[in-house]
């Protein structure tokens, strides 16, 4: 429906790619139809993407919709065995992959491999399939059918497949975006990966709003700044880690980005000093802080440009504090803060954030978390201030959000405890200027152990990956527990967050 | 003829090419028409012409609502008929200015 509307409304507008060589809405529809015909030749149950950003992402997304199967973009950075495990949950499937990924997956059963470039070049090669593609393009997509499957790394570390149905995504788009509201010169720089909810929602909102998408294959701050300048990018969305690094480049080079008017950020805790630095370096840019989850079809609350400016120049502590807020709920979304007993708490009181609205899916494969009356418990902690601004206060569970990546402490603790010298371990996130949160660990060693923090870091790095390796490790005689034996993670976190970093890093038993 | 609608319900004009999706719905059933005739729950070839007074047409991507703001429709395909509840024509609603967030 969204693609059809875009084609009918402005079919010759370039929707993805460069100003000179990009695809128009009509060309995107043509390629999506061709892709759907290609997918439809096989008895598939999903279209999997294992690739960086490219113009093939929207083709595959709409192609999957036209073929009537979910689109499941996977994290191509996962190790081979984890990636294969996810693909095995999605077969029989058509797998759209970049050149690097084809070799990694080819041996798996139940998949039909399609090279990314084939989708992009699928214009004239499909004469035989014209009838099939015409049928596919004309078919009405069932609003109840699953549009997208996104794997989230939950508390247990086992990936959950969040399901977004067409009606959720359509509600989100038509509820938040004005049809063809963008000017023809607008361009959105997309650097979030396709397996992130923002990577999906941006395709839909840009297409519907009439804003051209310019992709970065993967994020790099220098390339980001160059592309923003060369493609006269007007809009962009970044996760916290990206923004700081972009600002470093802008500052070091003295680059001006005169076309850039609008920068939204979200996907993790944004250090307030980074926001202030951004507003100082880019005074003409409108900043938007967006709060949303995969399970809510992206954004549910925003702090808009005017609120940013008002907070930035205010001496009033309440107004000033709003720079740390995620703003107010979208018109179509209700938000409540509830205590553990389910009661709605007063402003200023911390509790679990619950959301309700047409865009809220709250559903995983095999299980919905929605209550009977449609509320989704987000597992995020937060509170409203007296004036109705929403503030986040970490995850209710203790997932560490490093950059835009969710890390499960349990997985890292398991690896630490597997070391012969380690008796117990508690892994927590501590505030970090660059990554939002950094991984820190408190470790209890065996009595006769002689192991350094560097040795333990190497141990973890060898078994997981560098982003999951604790930056700080401290050694303790015992870990704090409740009377019922539950680990007091919060106590450890507070202690590690307050400790001087250099002192921790060099400490050995 | 009245019908129950809810957000996401898709509606098709009986007399022109207009298609719309419900954005906001009242709790009570409504007598929803396009071109003066009751809208259809499924797509089909248009029959006849819009009635006089209900032939101003619909515009792609525009939102239409009643005076009470209890119902809002988004036009997903333009046509020659006008949307109404009974005899009350729906009006173009102003765009909601929301900042782009992704």
Q: Gyration radius of chain B, to the nearest Å?
A: 13 Å
Give the overall shape of chain B.
Answer: globular
> Percentage of helical residues of chain B?
under 10%
Shape assignment of chain A = globular
Number of beta strands of chain B:
9
How many structurally independent domains of chain B? 1
Q: What number of domains of chain A?
A: 3
Task: Work out the helix count of chain B.
Answer: 0
* Strand adjacency order, main sheet of chain A: 10-9-11-12-13-14-15
Number of helices of chain A: 18
Strand content of chain B: 25-35%
Largest sheet of chain A: 7 strands, mixed
Report what the structure shows.
- With 509 residues, chain A is an alpha/beta fold.
- Chain A has 3 domains: 217 residues, 3-Layer(aba) Sandwich (Rossmann fold); 90 residues, Luciferase, Domain 3 (Luciferase, domain 3, Roll); 107 residues, ANL, C-terminal domain (GMP Synthetase, Chain A, domain 3, 2-Layer Sandwich).
- Chain A is 34% helix and 26% strand.
- In chain A, strands 10-9-11-12-13-14-15 form a 7-stranded mixed beta sheet, with helices on both faces. In chain A, strands 4-3-5-6 form a 4-stranded parallel beta sheet.
- In chain A, helix 8 packs across helix 9.
- The radius of gyration of chain A is 23 Å and the shape is globular.
- Chain B is an all-beta fold.
- Chain B has one domain.
- Chain B contains no helices and 9 strands.
- In chain B, strands 1-2-6-5-9 form a 5-stranded antiparallel beta sheet, with no helix packed on it. Chain B has a 4-stranded antiparallel beta sheet with strand order 4-3-7-8, with no helix packed on it.
- The mean pLDDT of chain B is 92.
- The interface between A and B is medium-sized, with 42 and 21 residues.
């Amino acid at each position: 429906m969204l693609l059809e509307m875009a084609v009918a409304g402005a079919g010759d507008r370039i929707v993805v790619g460069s100003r000179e060589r990009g695809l128009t809405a009509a060309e995107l529809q043509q390629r999506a139809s061709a892709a759907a015909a290609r997918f439809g030749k096989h008895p598939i149950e999903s279209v999997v993407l294992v690739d960086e950003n490219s113009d093939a992402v929207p083709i595959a997304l709409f192609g999957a919709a036209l073929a009537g199967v979910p689109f499941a973009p996977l994290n191509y950075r996962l190790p081979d065995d984890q990636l294969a495990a996810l693909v095995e949950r999605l077969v029989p499937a058509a797998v759209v992959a970049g050149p690097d990924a084809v070799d990694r997956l080819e041996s798996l059963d139940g998949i039909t491999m399609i090279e990314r470039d084939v989708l992009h070049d699928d214009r004239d090669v499909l004469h035989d399939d014209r009838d099939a593609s015409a049928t596919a393009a004309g078919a009405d997509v069932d609003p109840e059918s699953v549009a997208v499957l996104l794997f989230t790394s939950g508390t247990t570390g086992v990936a959950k497949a969040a399901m977004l149905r067409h009606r959720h995504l359509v509600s989100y788009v038509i509820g938040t975006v004005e049809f063809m509201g963008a000017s023809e010169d607008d361009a959105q720089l997309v650097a979030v990966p396709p397996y992130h909810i923002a990577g999906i929602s941006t395709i839909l909102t840009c297409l519907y709003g009439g804003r051209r998408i310019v992709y970065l294959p993967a994020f790099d701050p220098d390339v980001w700044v160059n592309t923003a300048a060369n493609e006269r990018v007007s809009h962009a969305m970044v996760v916290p880690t990206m923004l700081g690094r972009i600002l470093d480049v802008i500052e070091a080079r003295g680059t001006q980005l005169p076309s850039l008017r609008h920068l939204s950020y979200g996907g993790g805790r944004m250090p307030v000093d980074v926001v202030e630095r951004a507003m100082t370096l880019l005074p003409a840019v409108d900043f938007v802080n967006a709060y949303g989850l995969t399970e809510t079809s992206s954004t549910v609350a925003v702090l808009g440009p005017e609120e940013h400016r008002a907070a930035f120049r205010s001496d009033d502590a309440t107004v000033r504090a709003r720079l740390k807020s995620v703003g107010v709920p979208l018109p179509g979304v209700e938000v409540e803060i509830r205590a553990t007993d389910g009661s709605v708490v007063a402003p200023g009181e911390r509790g679990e954030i619950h959301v309700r609205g047409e865009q809220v899916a709250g559903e995983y494969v095999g299980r919905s978390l929605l209550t009977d009356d449609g509320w989704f418990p987000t597992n995020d902690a937060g509170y409203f201030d007296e004036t109705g601004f929403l503030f986040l206060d970490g995850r209710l569970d203790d997932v560490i959000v490093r950059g835009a990546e969710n890390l499960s402490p349990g997985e890292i603790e398991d690896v630490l405890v597997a070391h012969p010298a380690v008796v117990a371990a508690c892994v927590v996130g501590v505030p970090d200027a660059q990554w939002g949160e950094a991984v820190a660990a408190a470790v209890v060693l065996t009595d006769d152990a002689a192991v350094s923090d560097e040795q333990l870091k190497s141990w973890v790095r060898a078994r997981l990956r560098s982003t999951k390796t604790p930056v700080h490790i401290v050694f303790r005689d015992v870990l704090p527990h409740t009377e019922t034996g539950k680990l007091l993670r919060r106590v450890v976190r507070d202690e590690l967050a307050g400790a001087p970093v250099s002192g921790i890093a060099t400490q050995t038993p | 003829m009245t019908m129950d609608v809810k957000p996401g319900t898709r509606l098709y004009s009986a007399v022109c090419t207009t298609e719309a999706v419900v954005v906001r719905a009242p709790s009570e059933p409504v007598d929803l028409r396009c071109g003066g005739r009751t809208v259809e729950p499924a797509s089909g070839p248009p029959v006849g012409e819009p009635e006089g007074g209900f032939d101003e047409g619909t515009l792609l991507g525009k939102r239409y609502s009643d005076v009470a703001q209890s119902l809002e429709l988004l036009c997903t395909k333009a046509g020659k008929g006008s949307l109404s509840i009974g005899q009350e024509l729906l009006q173009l609603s102003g765009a909601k200015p929301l900042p782009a967030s992704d």
